[in-house]
Amino acid sequence: MTTIGYDRSVKDLIKDLSATGHVNHQSYTKTMVTIHHNAGVLSHEDVLNAWKTREASAHFDVDRVGGVAQYVDVNEYAWACGNTVGNQTSISIEMSNSATGGNWPVAETTWHEAARLAGWLFAHVIGTRPNSSNLVPHHHWYATSCAGPYVDSVFGQLISLAQQAYDSFVSGGTGDSMDEQSIINALLDTPINRQGVDENNKAKTGATNLRSIISYMDAGWALPARVMLPVLNTLVTQVKTLSDEVAALKESNNTAGGTAHVKIEGDFPFTPSS
Fold first, then answer.
1. What is the CATH number of domain 10-176?
2. What is the pTM of this model?
3. How far apart are CA 124 and CA 185, in angstroms?
């Protein structure tokens, strides 16, 4: 067992968690990511200490400064969701709160990193793009207020950031808010179906992308209008998708506001060590 090949540092606490016995070392196909909060301002070690006495675990924790620790192999069954299917099918990410009580706030640095990590997991482990059906808060699985009112108020933005990170990772980018190079790579590398002829002048079908067409690296293929039309359609679709995501993110920023304080049943009824 080893930590994921994330492009940022990941503290390895897998053996320490395994020693508690609060994990099932059985592999499952993961299709979802579940977001939790600590119900406390906890370090990675505080989380581990809580799980030494509490029969619980999760795959990852993101602390209040955005640091990531891993406790369970991504394909294994963590004791996180309070639901068998949830534990079998999802990868759980805990987040430290920035303050206790109230609406249980989480620092922007923390939930932004959790979103980025989720995007990486969807790109490299799960293999599908995140959305509101496969990236969910803990209360999706179980009658709890976790991941807290604050996280609920920004969850649409969290999903949008995870989607941007996913799009960037799968196109060779850095995973950071769909940087310019990631957008360029996504457009250049989108598969395009087309027809052509082989060396014997016989019809053949295949796929290309805009990068190959521009660089003329695919000898033997014609470049008629029927090839350029799907390219243009792809460009229009990609640009519209990016435009819709930006508009949705702006809308969520405009409408996100305070929420009523409610009783929280968080994941960690635990006082951190000094």
1. 3.40.80.10
2. 0.67
3. 17
